Queue: 4 jobs
Job 1
Amino acid sequence: MPQFDNPDFLIIGAGAGGSTAARVLTERGFTVTIFERGGPSNAEDFIPLDELHFLDHKALIPLKEDDPQLYVDTAKPDAQPQEQERWWITNMVGGSTNQWEANLPRYVDSDMAVTRYLDGPVAGADMINWP
Ligand SMILES: Cc1cc2nc3c(=O)[nH]c(=O)nc-3n(C[C@H](O)[C@H](O)[C@H](O)COP(=O)(O)OP(=O)(O)OC[C@H]3O[C@@H](n4cnc5c(N)ncnc54)[C@H](O)[C@@H]3O)c2cc1C
């Protein structure tokens, strides 16, 4: 019987990251509960498979009335929250991973040394270079 009330791990979001983490953890015998804000989707949700309908992915991103979609440009000290469409986020089981385009660029050295390109530490984040 799944232990929804008292899992070993609680994961927020069922995209590629959260779902992969859940699989790895459950394969090792841990119990996991995932909270996903979007609903399930299946092939019928994408019918009529109209490419124009999905061309700019607006059929899949959250509506502004469902999601505040506020961004703050933290590089600007006096920046105020701005409402923006979050084109890259999809709220559904499977997350944005449902609509990725499958471009898989090869990693280069600079991808492994991200801190080299920062002015300094990022507040609230721990970042290390890939060993
Ligand atoms: C149109 C499009 C094309 C793309 N093409 C490519 C590509 O060609 N190559 C590539 O490498 N990458 C591509 N990407 C990016 C790639 O799809 C994402 O980087 C990847 O899917 C992110 O996975 P994730 O698990 O981090 O997040 P997501 O898949 O976005 O999952 C996050 C999940 O968390 C949920 N969530 C968020 N907040 C909450 C909350 N408060 N409570 C509960 N649930 C929450 C969301 O609903 C979502 O399901 C593309 C993305 C899009 C949208």
Job 2
Amino acid sequence: MGPKPRLSEAELEYLTEVDFRDHYALVAVAPDTPDGLAGVGRWVRNTEKPDEADFAIIVSDELHRQGLGTAITLALMTTARRRGIRRFTATMFADNRPAYRLFARVSTSLAVEDDGYVREVVAELPAATRPPVELPRAA
Ligand SMILES: CC(C)(COP(=O)(O)OP(=O)(O)OC[C@H]1O[C@@H](n2cnc3c(N)ncnc32)[C@H](O)[C@@H]1OP(=O)(O)O)[C@@H](O)C(=O)NCCC(=O)NCCS
């Protein structure tokens, strides 16, 4: 929920060496600028509640409002449902309207807790459907 200009070795390993079973990440890359990230989303299974996963997403500012956030989220929902996850939890600032609208649109029901500053959402995932994009075949 803020800038993070550097990653430690351990953080880099955690974020990139995902197992596609308890931790799944997708990146979107524009074909003409393959060195830059258009967006990245991930879910990490909750060890105490294995049918829940924490979800986070970011889309490059200049690509907002073109459906990329929705596409990444739907793809990750499909991968999660296929691995037994029924809901995503996410944390955002209470005034983060785009993220809230994104969750409201893609989940079948949404529980929200809000202290006026930080909002926690619990989004029920729809049943697994055909992935909207081709997904890596792993685990
Ligand atoms: C949240 C985020 C990923 C959405 O990405 P996106 O590619 O713009 O999303 P989409 O184009 O698929 O739009 C998703 C919804 O957000 C709405 N939205 C997008 N930008 C918006 C804006 N600036 N103001 C209001 N609504 C906005 C869209 O209208 C759409 O809602 P709708 O279906 O009701 O019309 C993007 O805004 C982002 O990266 N934000 C910063 C990181 C963040 O807050 N992540 C969420 C924490 S989990």
Job 3
Amino acid sequence: MKQIIFNARTALLTCAMLFSTATASFAGAQDYEFQAVQTEIKQGPGSTVSVRLVDKRTGKTVPDAVLFTTRMDMAPDGMETMTTTVEPTTSTEPGVYAFTTNLSMEGGWRFQVAAKVQGEPETVKGEVVLKAIP
Ligand SMILES: [Cu+2]
């Protein structure tokens, strides 16, 4: 009986070790997340949208990422083909990336971003949902 308990415990430990090894080898783009600094944005031209890039392993923001693809559309309101302009602008806070956009219609907007993070070979992709308010 004692031997069985011992074996079960060893098996559990082995499993835990295997699992953590597997987790480590799959570390990558999914360790990062884009978060909207503000989800309610004034409808109309010249609004600023800011997203924070966070390393989920540490909870810290990630500065110096290169954001190279962006798309703003109304997918949350069933209008995926309705897009608008979104241009990078200067941000004062490290790890926060700011954009000027024109939310031409009130309602839900989806902001998609792809980025290169230093030391991370995979492309980091993310999206946030915003609401254009009067
Ligand atoms: Cu629309």
Job 4
Amino acid sequence: MRVTAAVMEEKSGVFKLDGIELDAPRPDEVLVEVTATGICHTDLHARDGYFAMPYPAVYGHEGAGVVAAVGSAVEHLAVGDHVVISFPWCGECEHCRADRRSYCQRGRELKSLGMRADGSMTMSRSGTPVYGSFFQQSSFATHALTPARDAVKVRRDAPLEFLGPLGCGLQTGAGAVLNVMKPEAGQSFVAFGAGSVGLAGLMAAKLAGCEPIIAVDIRANRLQLARSLGATHTIDNAREGAIAKIWEITRGGAHFTLETSALPAVFRQAVDCLATRGTCVLVGSARRGAEVSFEMSTLQAGRMVRGVIQGDSRPEQFIPHLVDLFVAGQFPIDRLVTFYDFASINQAAADAVNGTTIKPVLRMPH
Ligand SMILES: [Zn+2]
Ligand SMILES: [Zn+2]
């Protein structure tokens, strides 16, 4: 079928809306009419050539929408279902079989090679292939073709236009806290980076009863938002000595820190401010080759550094749970979202980079 997609023609170019031919669903796939899709930094990393994905390409991996067609073997979804599309996984490797699918051995290629798991392609233009299947969804388009198992059914009374980022960035932050740290009430929590991932973690820490909750960033607007979402303290990392201040607020170091910045110097701060037996969870995606150093004695004192992908989430359980919390007013993701028309995708991408918006979400014209 003919759909409209935001096509990237060359490395670090501009997005151009264009007509694309999209395959019909195979037996195990669903076609989703995209209602809205978040922009995540990974989309922009792909645009800038961090992955092997060639051009022309269509990105987008935080899609939410309505099922428009299902493949013949799909049983758990029907036309009209509301879905959030989450990350891809192979289902066969050691980690998928252990139900730790965000660590899928084929995860990177399924996200960023621009084709299905079997190497076939889903998009073309005037008979020439276009690299789609980004995160097996390429939701910067009016319609997305995705493996049925990556589409998570959500309740119909939740406003669908807010839900796409739960499929990546927001479950990453919330899952790092609720699935990995599992803090007890009264334990201290620090978010390094008050973007969408850090703020989702902060909201989860508030739900868990953490105290104090500290947000560290260099942008005043983000720190202010963090305070209104539950931070008891904020630190401007450009002006204040974060480690000394965290040490003072927590009286001896933080129980849990969440590193979202992907900057080596900030990652080190997130480890150096830990209490004895404290845990730092790393979720920020650094470029290959980025290195960081610690003092070995710091880690030896029972401190832990744990890398986490997608918040250790089992999306079909965790995303509906987060939607319930959102509807109940306890996980106010609407406070993070700024909507843009699909045609304004280049403005939305620029605002994501310069930090004026926390989570840009593109609304599709239907
Ligand atoms: Zn993402
Ligand atoms: Zn796998």
